[in-house]
Specification:
single chain; 316 residues; alpha/beta; Rossmann fold; 2 domains; 11 helices; 8 strands
Length: 316
């Protein structure tokens, strides 16, 4: 069974000024002359972590990670102005040009899979292949499942804590209610909402409860950016047209693609991966029978690292 590679450190980091006031944190790891791969983190708003470097053989890949606008070490933290899907697509292309990369592999999970697909549909000529995990199509039904009604029936105890910051009369539209608090001026209400929002997601992300993930996502720095930016995107339909990804799938059907999805993913249910594969049968689909949403569950790690091996063999 494939496991994560040992921990590594970047060989260089960058701060790239894009649209004011945004400055992106970028890091490069592995072989500077290796096969370029871009890691796209989730959320939006989650930021990158050192463990994200470990899906790739550092002797083969030039591993590029960056914190999307408002996330992680990018600045300003949790900034909503100028933060939208097209801006992130423009940032990715700007990074490619800045680093002098011709074409690259795109690796993304959850919201990172959304961004990978939209980027590939915008710049198919620049994508060598895609490795996608925990598919998130950003349709209204996908948002409603997790934030309005659906997962609430699987985790009714955790759901009560997610409801707690919201008055009874506002619960008919949880996204709008949360947005009023997360984008509001009341700092205490904003942070309480951010922690409740982020902890809800963390508690549901693994097949087996992961206290370490809950603590990480409940940390004020991570919780604030993730909750504010996610809610900002979702209240704006993720800045996508209805069914945009599936309607434009023909643009990318020639790109080698591997899809990995947990059978018991309660954040992004497996029907999203199935719908993508039905529209994109050229892609390979692996449904992991004993996994949820997290990239770090054993079966998911095995499939993702196996995919990076396969792409390296085919493309390096």
């Amino acid at each position: 069974m494939n496991k994560l590679y040992p921990a590594i450190k970047p060989f260089t980091t960058h701060k790239l000024e894009v649209e004011e006031p945004h400055v992106l944190y970028i890091e490069e790891c592995g072989d500077p002359e290796g096969l370029p791969v871009l890691f796209l983190h989730g959320g939006p708003g989650a930021g990158c972590d050192a463990s994200h470097r470990q899906f790739f053989d550092p002797e083969v890949y030039r591993i590029i990670l960056f914190d999307q606008r408002g996330s992680g070490r990018s600045r300003p933290h949790a900034m909503l102005d100028g933060n939208n899907t097209q801006a992130l697509i423009d940032d990715i292309e700007r990074i490619r040009e800045y680093l002098g990369i011709d074409k690259w592999v795109i690796f993304g999970g959850s919201w990172g899979s959304t961004l990978a697909l939209v980027y590939a549909q915008s710049y198919p000529e620049n994508v060598l292949g895609m490795i996608l995990r925990g598919i998130f199509l950003c349709r209204q039904q996908d948002i409603d499942w997790f934030y309005q009604e659906g997962a609430s029936h699987i985790f009714p105890d955790y759901w009560q804590d997610y409801l707690q910051p919201i008055a009874q009369e506002e619960r008919g539209n949880m996204i709008q209610a949360y947005y009023r608090r997360l984008a509001g001026d009341d700092e205490l209400a904003r942070m309480a909402a951010a922690k409740a929002w982020s902890r809800w997601e963390a508690r549901c992300a693994n097949l087996r409860y992961n206290a370490q993930l809950v603590a990480h996502m409940g940390d004020p720095h991570t919780a604030l950016s993730m909750a504010r930016i996610e809610c900002h995107y979702f209240i704006n339909d993720s800045f996508l047209e209805p069914d945009q990804i599936l309607n434009n799938i023909n643009i990318i059907r020639h790109i080698p693609t591997t899809i990995v999805h947990g059978r018991y993913d309660m954040v992004c249910p497996v029907d999203q991966a199935f719908a993508l594969h039905k529209a994109f049968p050229e892609a390979s689909l692996s449904i992991i029978p004993d996994a949820g949403h997290s990239a770090f569950e054993t079966g998911i790690v095995d499939a993702l690292v196996g995919a990076t091996h396969s792409f390296a063999d085919a493309l390096a």
